[in-house]
Amino acid sequence: MTAGGVLTFVRWWFGVTYVLAGVGGLLAAPIMVAAGNAGGYYMLIGSPIIFAFGWVVHPWGLQRTARREAEGYDRASALLPSRWERA
Questions:
Q1: How many domains does the chain have?
Q2: Which range marks the domain in which residue 9 is found?
Q3: Does the predicted model carry a pTM greater than 0.85?
Q4: CA–CA distance from 39 to each of 34, 45, 51 (Å)?
Q5: Which of 4-8, 19-23, 49-53, 66-70 has the lowest mean pLDDT?
Q6: Has residue 27 got a pLDDT over 70?
Q7: Which among 32, 29, 33 is positioned nearest to 44, based on CA atoms?
């Protein structure tokens, strides 16, 4: 496995882990608050941050958008007739 392959695997692993932890925390927070656990408030605030961090790290998330912008990809220009001729 190349260094790029290892990096992609690590980004997938941590991205998915953090995204799922953020969703799980957001689902568990109201249950914790209803049960009288004050930590549920912290989880309610922190789980969207955890989710956002996972989305930034994951290759399908913000990294893809940043890469496309760095390469000069413009979604709106794909609809122009000049792009159709080169297809």
A1: 1
A2: 3-85
A3: no
A4: 11, 10, 18
A5: 66-70
A6: yes
A7: 29
Q: Which of 28, 9, 16 is nearest to 53 (CA)?
A: 16
For the range 26-30, what are the long-range contacts, defined as Cβ-Cβ under 8 Å and sequence gap of 24 or more? Answer: 26/51
Instruction: State the residue for tokens 């956002």.
Output: 52
Residue 16 has pLDDT above 90, yes or no: yes
Q: Which residue has the tokens 């004050």?
A: 38
- 51 and 18 Cβ atoms separated by less than 8 Å: yes
Which candidate, 18, 12, 20, places its Cα nearest to that of 63?
A: 12
Helix, coil or strand: residue 12: helix
Residue 84: predicted pLDDT:
56
